[in-house]
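Work Package 3 (structural annotation) set out to generate three-dimensional models for the target panel prioritized at the project kickoff. During this period the team completed the workflow that converts sequence records into discrete structure tokens, so that structures can be stored uniformly alongside our sequence database. As a representative example, we reproduce one entry of 492 residues exactly as it appears in the project archive.
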Amino acid sequence: MPTNGLHQELKVQFGLVNDTGRYLTAENFGFKVNASAPSLKRKQTWVLEPDPGQGCAVLFRSSHLGRYLSAEEDGRVACEAERPGRDCRFLVLPQPDGRWALRSEPHGRFFGGTEDQLSCFATAVSAAELWTVHLAIHPQAHLLSVSRRRYVHLCAQEDQMAADSDRPWGVDALITLTFRSRQYCLRSCDSRYLRSDGRLVWEPEPQARYTLEFKAGKLAFKDADGHYLAPVGPAGTLRAGRNTRPGKDELFDLEESHPQVVLVAANHRYVSVRQGVNVSANQDEELHHETFLMQIDQETKKCTFYSSTGGYWTLVTHGGIHATATQVSANTMFEVEWRGRRVALKASNGRYLCMKKNGQLAAISDFVGEDEEFILKLINRPILVLRGLDGFVCHRRGSNQLDTNRSVYDVFHLSFRDGAYQIRGRGGGFWYTGSHGSVYSDGERPEDFLFEFRERGRLAIRVRGGKYLRGGASGLLRADADTPAGVALWEY
């Protein structure tokens, strides 16, 4: 049975890109390292760990090998060490343009080079010793202020972002990290960018770009003037402060952003906990009490629904559904059946949830009819980033088709209508399917796509005709998968 995990801190993984645009790679054979790969895949993914000695040094661990980067006194580098030793310790020296210089702490030399000619023997920093940090995690997450223990969210009325929320609830808590010109932008749920003076702007201008720094596993965002983002004042307004070194006030955690959904029953009303512990379909508008955090157990593929009042949906006596459980158990797990534009939910007693005449939900049905079907709408992804097994989905250059194997990503806009989603890309063009499984991104009219949340953090996208979108060897997005698994599942 799954454990409770509403707030999971993301393990920060990244790639290091050299001056020629190639990624630092850890090879299986001989545990050698090179900078030959043009894109960010498993072998190019690294994890930064603090030095156990509590000093300023850090360790670079290969994500796929589980071994540590090391540099010997003669400059030879490898990724062989199973446990970090003296030669594995590096100092990260951020440069004004956002890149990093990596210096061996015990030997004082800089790490760099090209292709398979990497070494850690340079006495000074040149272009060959500079590395761009490219995050390998999915870029949509929640941002938690370490000092205030409050989440950053969009304050639309004040036209700012602030760290003043005790829960990352609703669409305004979604933050998208956008990679631009070797730096990162913080993008709000309405697609605006945060400037260092706290203003929100529509373009990723230089004042809205930040250099990432890591300290004790936390993130800091340094602006073009060398100052760091921090929550300021009683309202926790997010803007660059005076500090030129990151302290606790300037540190943030990234947390996984689980899907938040609303459900609409056959009476066209929203499922809600507004009027007490009973889960009922009795509201005409969607607010916090109608929003539920949906978590999918990786083993059983069943899901839980967590309410804004602090309780999980749970099966109680006589089939009733209450939002009162404080722990995940068998009675809080529901099986989702994907039925085109509708879903049906089966409780642990083997019966389907239905809407009773008074609007309350109960698991008392043996078959699925109109009263057992619900519209399920994802609300906290108004902008969407998709990543498959081979990379991110991105517009193909000079084409109206889409790549699925890119290191960089495009942000797409979602709209929703009657159980289906419409996806809009660059220039306002809509996604649509063509003949022989092709997918295009310049449609004048929207086409409906069905989202099925199949695994934790992953969804399948179903098109008309019942096929699923997939990646593949060609690197093109296709609409010809028969089952929602493997290359047909997308991180979102």
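DSSP finds no helices and 48 strands in the chain.
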